[in-house]
Amino acid sequence: MSRLIIEESPPLAGRVRVGGSKNAALPIMAAALMARGKCVIHDVPALSDIFVMQNIIESYGGATEYDCKSERMIIDASELGRHTADYELISKIRASFLILGPLLSRLGEVKTAMPGGCAIGGRPVDLHLKGMAALGAQIGLNHGYIEASAAKLRGAEVHLDFPSVGATENIIMAATLAKGRTIIGNCALEPEITDLCNFLVSIGADISGAGTDTITVNGVDSLNGGEYRIIPDRIEAGTFLAAACARPGGDVSLENADTAHLRPVIAKLREMGAQIEEKSGPGLLSIKTDDRLKAADVKTLPYPGFPTDMQAQFMALLAVSTGRGVMTETVFENRYMHAAEMSRMGACIKIDSRTAVVDGVRNLAGCPVKATDLRAGAALIIAALGADGVTEIFGVHHLERGYDRIDEKLRQLGARIIKIG
Length: 421
What we know:
The protein has 14 helices and 25 strands. By secondary structure, the protein is an alpha/beta fold. The termini are close together. Helix 1 (22-31) runs parallel beside helix 2, helix 1 (22-31) packs parallel to helix 7 and helix 6 (165-176) runs parallel beside helix 7 (191-202). A hairpin with a 4-residue loop joins strand 4 and strand 5 (72-76).
């Protein structure tokens, strides 16, 4: 079993580049299934979730090629041979469900299993299915598979009960090749959705309103191939900003960071005492800390609120800050599993339903801990960087779903971290 060994480390210092966004790359890869030409996508991170999506695309008959060094993905879905993928493949990642809209729109039928992913709470797919049904699809559940079919999807007005990111993306993609106009209300506002829309427009789609709560899609007959670059990963950037604050004296610069997507994270770090400066140059951002951070209250919300994907990392910061902070998780109901592992390191955390009260301690103590999901793994790294002694983190496969070579990047910044296995 792979694991990370993190020895007591000095404050992080230096420069590191933020990779492309996983949460933008996955829906864009799914959208490439609708194109009848070759799509060349740049800044696609080398992550296990990306490779699973690549395999899913190939299982439907698409041709793919990925270069880890240049982080370039080529997808050619000109000829699709199947409308069903293997259950074992689909069940590995949550984003696998994003093939529903593209394949239904392109082929008129699709058969897919329920998606997998981190066990961080209920993430029902009913909004996805309601959207497909509103566009004219027939939906059924047969032997554990969701089957959807439509001779031709037709534009409609769709109002989401909740601004779900995945449902917004799936409905946009399904509507792209539908006949007529689709208006989607109460859309999620995440920048990854805007990136998906920009990609689709670049290959021939007619979409307006991206970045707002109402998106209009005028269906087109076909989509072409094209070339596109993924936006920077705001959660990776936020994770490095948090890691720089694990010990007083951190001084880290990020390359390829989109500060517009990091506003809530930057604002909270400044409130806690970090010095953050946007520098001249493409995506340059620096962060410094002189003393231990001051505790603050954090409440997760859909974008543009504080991201749930940064909750665990900030709990690690609160654990080594001065004073008491209250964390409130409003997006997922089962996202405090990392708290028990941090408590083994000496953190003082009390959980009551969706609220966590964290009293900062001066020193955490390294010990063996286990990552239970992707962001929990990142939080344990931050806790280890602020701890005395040696920390051994198991469950590294979770980290590899969302962080490309995080151990190498942290070593660039002076962390004493090695990966074994």
